[in-house]
């Protein structure tokens, strides 16, 4: 399996190289050269399989010669052995048609653990026995940071610098990052900044030759292909439990950066019968506008109780546009450079028509989010977080046949967002015992201006050069 850049002007890489590289050298994102295809018999064979067995089957075509099947199985066994539920990503029924796929049983209580626990082990495996040292630079709207830090803390050959917008993540999210005191972990709180600002800084570091040439930079955001690959697994795992491949399954995905729902698109391209992918946004609705009107134009980020979705530039959307636009790297490069210059873009007819075949979208406001939390609590006995509530609200409003199961991805444990959950439901969720002392732990982080000069100077003082 080889990987190509969405912008068509970066080296073709194998899986090991693309995992360590993160962002492509031409500013694009890596994708497989072609999509592997599963037959209905291969999908049916996953019924009753464990999560690890499913993961090995789904990911083997993507890793190519970089790992043996035995090595991949050992890494998956280790990664998912840290989850608090034996099913890793269990399904919970809400009513006759709606289900939750609980993705928050990992060590930091968010769906990012599913991919990042594996990615940390992949970094360690690919760096072992060499003198290489990589510098992981990431931006987080809350959950990626804590999951990446947990996965990489103390690992040899890696330093991680994680940027978050100061005051725009929940207290639990912040403390899950800033209380990890391993020497290779560096937290940076950006003053007067949004997640989009943090993400732009990360991309600028990769694209600045004077900085990127000094360090072996890598990424843990969903710009890293290995992260998306790992997320494809739970679409297969859920769907076969609800009747695939004999019947299609729909998924509602709360998303801001488009990574989690793009993994569902990959599953569909591989042959999984996905009836519809429902893209659920909060009031920061660039993805809803793009999919419903073809208008991909950046607005002003509005802080909400669902901070992981407070995003107005969705990095992974570029991957979808590339695949739907005939995989024309030069054309996509021009389209994205135009967006970066003007902060506005219209989707082409081919992109809009291709997206409408599989995707639908919805914009959920604060009242609708709260009502969904209250409905889940009162009618199904489930306490859900604000992000999951946005997905559920969109799922319940979608027009789908009654015989199609609709799975809402439950992306975070409700205790990570205690205040909005309590306001909506009257229930104050408690942290699981394994992190119950979180608010007693010492914090450590640096507060910096959200400028390229300040952040790169801070990293350069602490990072290991090539």
UniProtKB/TrEMBL annotation:
**Boundaries of every Threonine synthase N-terminal domain copy:** 2-80
The text of the family note is: Belongs to the threonine synthase family.
* Higher taxonomy: Bacteria, Pseudomonadati, Pseudomonadota, Alphaproteobacteria, Sphingomonadales
| Known cofactor(s) | pyridoxal 5'-phosphate
**PANTHER family per UniProt:** THREONINE SYNTHASE FAMILY MEMBER, THREONINE SYNTHASE-LIKE 2
Q: What is this protein called?
A: Threonine synthase
| A Pfam family it matches | PALP
Q: Which reaction does it catalyse?
A: O-phospho-L-homoserine + H2O = L-threonine + phosphate
List the gene name: thrC
């Amino acid at each position: 399996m080889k990987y190509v850049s969405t912008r068509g002007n970066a080296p073709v890489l194998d899986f090991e190289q693309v995992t360590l590289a993160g962002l492509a050298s031409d500013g694009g994102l890596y994708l497989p050269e072609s999509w592997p295809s599963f037959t209905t018999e291969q999908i049916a064979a996953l019924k009753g399989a464990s999560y690890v067995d499913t993961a090995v089957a789904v990911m083997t075509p993507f890793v190519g010669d970089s790992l043996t099947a035995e090595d991949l199985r050992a890494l998956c066994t280790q990664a998912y052995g840290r989850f608090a539920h034996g099913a890793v990503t269990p399904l919970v029924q809400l009513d006759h048609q709606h289900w939750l796929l609980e993705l928050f049983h990992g060590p930091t209580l968010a769906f990012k653990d599913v991919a990042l626990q594996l990615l940390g082990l992949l970094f360690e495996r690919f760096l072992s026995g060499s003198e290489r040292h990589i510098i992981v630079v990431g931006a987080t709207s809350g959950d990626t940071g804590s999951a990446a830090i947990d996965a990489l803390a103390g690992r040899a050959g890696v330093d991680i610098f994680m940027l978050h917008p100061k005051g725009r993540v929940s207290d639990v999210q912040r403390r899950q990052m800033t209380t990890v005191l391993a020497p290779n972990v560096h937290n940076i709180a950006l003053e007067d900044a949004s997640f989009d600002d943090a993400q732009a800084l990360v991309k600028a570091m990769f694209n600045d030759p004077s900085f990127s040439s000094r360090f072996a930079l890598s990424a843990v955001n969903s710009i890293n292909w290995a992260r998306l690959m790992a997320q494809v697994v739970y679409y297969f795992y859920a769907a076969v439990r609800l009747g695939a491949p004999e019947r299609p399954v729909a998924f509602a995905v709360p998303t801001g950066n488009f990574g989690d729902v793009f993994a569902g698109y990959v599953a569909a391209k591989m042959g999984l019968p996905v009836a519809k992918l429902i893209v659920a946004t909060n009031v920061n609705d660039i993805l809803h506008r793009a999919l419903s009107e073809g208008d991909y134009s950046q607005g002003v980020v509005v802080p909400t109780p669902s901070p992981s979705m407070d995003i107005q530039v969705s990095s992974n959307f570029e991957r979808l546009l590339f695949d739907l636009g005939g995989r024309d790297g030069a054309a996509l490069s021009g389209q994205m450079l135009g967006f970066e210059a003007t902060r506005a873009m219209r989707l082409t007819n081919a992109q809009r028509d291709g997206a409408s075949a599989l995707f639908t979208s919805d914009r959920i406001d604060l009242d609708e989010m709260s009502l969904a939390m209250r409905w889940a609590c009162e009618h199904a006995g489930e306490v859900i977080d604000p992000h999951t509530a946005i997905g559920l609200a969109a799922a319940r409003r979608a027009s789908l046949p009654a015989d199609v199961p609709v799975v809402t991805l439950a992306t975070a444990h409700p205790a990570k967002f205690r205040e909005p959950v309590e306001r909506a439901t009257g229930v104050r969720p408690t942290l699981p015992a394994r992190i119950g002392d979180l608010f007693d732990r010492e914090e450590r982080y640096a507060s910096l201006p959200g400028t390229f000069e300040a952040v790169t100077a801070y990293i350069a003082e602490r990072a290991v050069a090539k």
